[in-house]
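Q: Predict the assembly, please.
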Amino acid sequence: MRNIIFCVLAACLAAAPLAAAPRPVTLDAIDHTAAELIVVGTDGAEATYDPATLERMPTYSLTTTTPWRSDPAVFEGVLLTDLLAAHGLSDIDAIEVTAENDYSVTIPRAVWEEFSILVATRVDGRAHSRRARGPIQFVIDMDAYSASANAREDYLVWMAARIEPAR
Amino acid sequence: MPRPARRRPTINRMLDALARRVGLSLSLTGLVLVCALAGLYVERSVRHLETSKEHFSDRYLRNGFMAMVDIQRLLFIVQEAKDQGAFTPRSQRDFLAAADFLYARSEDFRQALDARTPAASASAAVASLDAILAITDREPPAAADLDRLFSDLLAAADGTRLHLMRYLEEMGRMQNEIMRDQSRAVGEQRNVVLASLAGLTLIGIAALLLLRREVLARQARDLAERHVEFLAYFDQLTELPNRTQFQSHLAERLAAPGPVTLVLVDLDDFKGINDTWGHAAGDAVLCRVARLLSAEADATGGFAARLGGDEFALVLPGDDARALTTTLGGISAEARKGLPLDGEMLRIGLSMGYASNTLLGADMDPTPDTLFRVADFALYSSKANGRGRYTQYDEELERRFLERRSMIDDLPRAVESGSLDVYLQPKVLLPGGETFGFEALIRWNRNGTVILPEDFIQIAEECGLIFEIDRHVLRSAAAMLGRFNRENGTAYSVSVNLSALHFNSSRIIAWVRDALAETLLEPRLVTLEITETAELRDWGEAQRVMAELRGMGTRISIDDFGTGYSSLAYLRSTVVDEVKIDRSIVEQIESMDKARFLLDGVLDIARNLGLDVVVEGVQNRAQSETLCRLGATRAQGFLYGQPIPAHAALDRLRSELPDQRKA
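A: Predicted assembly structure:
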């Protein structure tokens, strides 16, 4: 009996990181698609990133599908939590994310605390293009996404252009 | 005429049907079926909704609008460049980005196509989007001819707008359909829920009502059962336990170790109370006695019961004579205080007899029956000694009880074996003393001892043997005298005593007739003597029987006149031929003037009424002479002859015959 419980626990522990967590990865420099991501701090200070400057933060890799991809792809980029922490946005209630085509969505803190949201800048080792819903795309592991009732397609912003505290 | 059967309420019949195995199975099946149907109904509408929803996503609708916006953005960028005459580097970048947006949008459409959603309009929209993309991707924006690019894009956008409109309309229709399905599904679910609630409410109400019915019915049943039990084991008037319960209680008490005393209580002259004061008063008296006895039972851990009529019983623990005397004396005194009734005090007299199981002799089995009999004997003794007292069953009573019991045992055999002998005592004419007839008297020759009738006739009356005995005497005496008269050409009469018990029914008439027919004795020579006792209460009925007997030619005589219950009323009765003056009067005739005057008066009255008078108990010549002086004509007594066995009496008579004839 004890053995069975142990095995189940081990399986869970082994499966959990595979299912949800992006792995840290070291990326070589490449030519990126031209894009800008502006992050507005709580004090109103704006910081402008392009994919290359984003990748100066710790980078991660996540292999998953998206609602628009039936085949898994390797997404690489930085964690949203790292980005928010860098601008003192970790503890605010919600952020508002705007895309280049003026699409915007409010993401509550519970969402970025529940899911590891990857701010992807590369797909399958190459620069992320707009036609492939880049250049900067929010990605969540699809298994975790499907398993949770809190996940919404709205949060998977592509062509992300601006992050600011929600008003 | 048959009474119409009472109709059972419909609901009861329905419930009966429901309670049967078939009824229960059917209704359970029905219930399951209804639930299953409701479930299927809901399931069907939900599934229909899900099917519709599978083919629709709000993303498809949004795609259409976004595509319009994206095309608009593209056109705006190109128009701005055309107005300025050339693309700036920034507007080139915006143009490429806008084309990329449109590309992503056409991807979404393609996905919708893959999901086979509104295929026709979606594929037309995709084609027109592809046409726009073909224009934007034709050459790098820097090299483009802006006028041509703008006019091409404008033309393509125009067609695309048409297709998108159609697509959007179709999507809108689908959305409406889904909304409608949703509303319908919710409506259907609401119907099911309402129907279920209504059904549940009805079932609940019915269940509660039925439950109440059942509970009420059960309560009524319990009450009825308790009432029946009460009727079975209690006396309704006094609420004391009845005879049934008394018997089992006494048996239980006797089975347990330890002394037990049974007290039997009789109300004195209960009939008198009823007759004088009415039955309501009688009931009140019974209740009063019941309360006294049950209070005593409660105080001592005893048991009081009403055995029926005016008989009560008290079972008490212990056998201490002194304590019992105190207890019963207290009860008796309390009862004697009386009951207030119509402003007067109705005094209640109680006769009691009691017996303890420890006081029974060695040869008496201490069964409930035995204890009851001996206590009853003690009670009988109390009553015989003048009522209003209590008697303990002791050795003396036991001796008498056993004697009496053995007589009861022996008497039937005596009747069968002929050990009951008929004696004759002469009845004579005054003043000469000639025998004109005999009184037939019974004697029981019991193991060599001759027992007089006063010692066993009452027992015979109690155990019903008196009929046999009286008939035996009548037949024997009549037969002997009949034979004697025929043989000797004489006409001697015979008197036979009959118990008053015979005169409560007509049975006697038949057997007197039979006896006379067998013996050939002339009826006029047969005198039937009756002693008035307490048993002859119904004087009217007795007179009717006597009249019929007299109609057959026999004579009727009132025995023991002047004592007990006999009264002057009998003298004027038309059915009486003779009165016999009791010996107690003759005994005093020499010493008391009053007795003489009384006898004189009775003789005078009887003579005037045409009745014969026989004076009994004449023992000496002086009495005889006095009687002659008073004018008495008939007498009986030791002076003229004692009762002797019949054959001896007749032999003596035969030997005297010639002398009498000579005379």
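The two ends of chain A are 53 Å apart (CA to CA). Residues 19-165 of chain A form a domain with the Sulfite Oxidase; Chain A, domain 2 fold (CATH 3.90.420.10).
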